[in-house]
Specification:
There is one protein chain. The protein is of the alpha/beta class. It is built from nine helices and five strands. The longest helix is centred in the middle third of the chain and has 24 residues. 29% of the residues are buried.
Length: 198
């Protein structure tokens, strides 16, 4: 089974690109969705997080307050390391489980931290959805209603754009509109179908 790792920084358009691949009948394993699933109420990981950070880390629905957690870990590198040590192995196991269950000609693993974690070892090729940092900040700020400083902090905690460009097997530039992205994804999809059939 050919597995493609799709990545890109915050605001690059990973979700839009993966949705287009999905329209072409490709199974998507989304690391962000998996990471939310493993910290749902009742999950062992959430219990460990509450024990570590106290119940203040929960919102009014007794669910993990991701905004609060994000502020905590981006202002304290030790807490970030602790959280990653807890969650990365759990997330990895669930990703492997979902990849094995895929039935499409090839599978897409969508992960913003593909190169930052060892998730890149789970894929055969990597596809970067690339935009300049200024555009990342503009799009992410508009989408998430986050302040620019918070978005810049997230970008600073990810590997530099230049590193990802160097490491990626395939790159789609997403500086233009949605129809341009659709055309680029369609071209890439055809290439992956050919690789999957080899």
């Amino acid at each position: 089974m050919l597995t493609i790792g799709l990545t890109g920084g915050i605001g690059s358009g990973k979700s839009a690109a993966s949705a287009i691949f999905e329209q072409h009948g490709i199974d998507i394993v989304d690391a962000d969705i998996v990471s939310r699933k493993v910290v749902e109420p009742g999950q062992p990981a959430l219990k460990r997080i509450i024990t570590h950070f106290s119940s203040d880390i929960l919102d009014t629905n007794n669910e993990l307050d991701r905004g609060k957690l994000r502020q905590l870990i981006f202002s304290d590198p030790e807490q970030k390391t602790w959280l990653e040590a807890l969650l990365h192995p759990i997330i990895r196991n669930e990703i492997i489980h979902q990849l094995k269950a895929s039935n499409s000609p090839y599978t897409l693993l969508v992960s913003p931290l593909l190169f930052e974690t060892d998730q890149n070892l789970l894929v055969d090729r990597t596809l970067l959805i690339d935009v300049p940092v200024e555009l990342q900040i503009k799009r992410a700020t508009k989408r998430d209603n986050d302040n620019t400083a918070q978005i810049e902090k997230i970008i600073a905690n990810q590997l530099p754009r230049e590193y990802k460009i160097e490491k990626a097997d395939d790159i789609i530039s997403n500086e233009l509109d949605l129809s341009s992205l659709e055309k680029a994804v369609k071209r890439q999809h055809k290439i992956y179908l050919e690789l999957a059939n080899e």
